[in-house]
Amino acid sequence: MSPRTLVEAREPATDARFLDALAEIVGEAHVLTDPELIEGYTRDWTGRWIGDAIAVVRPADTAEVSAVVTTCFEAGIPITPQGGNTGLVGGGIPSAGSVVLSTRRLDSIETVDPIGRTIAAGAGVTVARADLAASAHGLRFGIDLASKESATLGGIVATNAGGTRMVRYGNTRAQILGIEAVLADGSVLSRWTPLVKDNVGYDIPGLLAGSEGTLAIVTKVLMKLVTPATDTQVVLAGVRDVDQALHLCNRVRQSGLTVEAAEIMTDDGISLVCAHTDARRPFGTPSPMYTLIEVSSPRETEESLLEVLSASADLIEDATVEPGPARKLWTLRESHTESISASSTTPVVKLDISVPLSVMGMFIESLREVLTERFVHVRPMLFGHFADGNIHVNLLDAEPSIAHELTDTVFELVSAHHGSISAEHGIGRAKSPWIALGRTETDIAAMKLIKSSWDPRGILNPGILLPETVG
Ligand SMILES: Cc1cc2nc3c(=O)[nH]c(=O)nc-3n(C[C@H](O)[C@H](O)[C@H](O)COP(=O)(O)OP(=O)(O)OC[C@H]3O[C@@H](n4cnc5c(N)ncnc54)[C@H](O)[C@@H]3O)c2cc1C
């Protein structure tokens, strides 16, 4: 049965008895219905998505999540799982008639195992807290992103987040060992083993990574931790274009240094950050683009990096090197998202794409050309984790009436360059109309089969990811 048919067959019971049943499970204080109180859960970070909900429910543990889901399942009420609400594609924003299930109270860190190098924690624990807990044992959490103070472990699993350390440690899927999740009928699935080698059947934790709340609600995770590099150096180099940055990154790698992070920014982006924060321009003479590369090596990182840089005068216009963590240099990159939002006169059209490294320069050039030709008033701001092929295309001052056409234009160009319309933020509401640009018909049909077998009543995040699961 298709999810659409099931959604139509739903008979919502939005009466007081339903809310009372939720309150009985989580306590009255944790069923929010006051429009002022739920506003922070029904609007997203970008200001582009404004939803509505019957209530926001905040369970404290897996048993409560299970009971809430069972109650919604029986009443046919859709559920929007939500963690830190930092998602950039509208996936955590409810449509009218839904319940927001907030995981923020699932916030206990159960164990940090310094020998097995794992952390077991609730889905509502933030990335920053997980990292702090790991640091207490000389370890680090492998995912790092500018939203870490609010983004939750459940959220990064659900979106399969990448972030600044992906080039070093892989995406969130690569860090998951075990998962506990509540399925659409309220049953609890636990795939919980610290084994790195365990090939019994389908990779369910891997499937839930990137499922954007459409298959199950993640309640607990068991994730790998990493050993932090002890001697890191950060270079910020002005370059002419992205190809020079890619060549520089390649030379750094070939010298034997380990690339911990590699980011690209434009001069416009740096100017914006300097206008909106107290950051200062890095060099007297601006360059068209800047790359920030963080490196490590078992020894003499600084000497090795300086050697590469002095042999790369053909690629670099200017450069500065600082020992890690080099917060000031990183601020120039990490303040981009906030500065962009603050500077645009309209909600920013945020596209997060990836293209093969070999065509990245051509893609950026074509993108600029097409935007200048067809969307004169739109200000493009490009930055991102370029060594993974990932560019965040932010389009400022774009009237909402042209957002669809603008997205269409960029995605067609991405597709023509054999890229992906979602590198790391997911599909959510924002990109579901374009999913066919990223997957074949058979592939989409297979995903729909998975969705309908895991969530036959279509109550988990309808309208997200797969366009036919309307909410
Ligand atoms: C300043 C800034 C910087 C960012 N940088 C990056 C970056 O570098 N890399 C990157 O990948 N992303 C980045 N993001 C996007 C965002 O932080 C990530 O997508 C993050 O993983 C979302 O986590 P969250 O807890 O806020 O999830 P939410 O926004 O609450 O939800 C996101 C999606 O996951 C689902 N979900 C949330 N929790 C659960 C759960 N427990 N079970 C099932 N489904 C769930 C929601 O339904 C929704 O579909 C950035 C965002 C901001 C604002």
TrEMBL record:
Cofactor or coenzyme needed: FAD
Flavoprotein found in the keyword field: yes
GO biological process: respiratory electron transport chain
Database matches in InterPro entries: FAD-bd_oxidored_4_C (IPR004113), FAD-bd_PCMH (IPR016166), FAD-bd_PCMH-like_sf (IPR036318), FAD-bd_PCMH_sub1 (IPR016167), FAD-bd_PCMH_sub2 (IPR016169), FAD-linked_Oxase-like_C (IPR016164), FAD-oxidored/transferase_4 (IPR051264), Oxid_FAD_bind_N (IPR006094)
Protein name: Putative FAD-linked oxidase
Chain ranges passing through the membrane: none
Source species taxonomy: Bacteria, Bacillati, Actinomycetota, Actinomycetes, Mycobacteriales
Record key words, sorted: FAD, Flavoprotein, Oxidoreductase
FAD-binding PCMH-type domain sequence ranges: 49-228
Domain of life: Bacteria
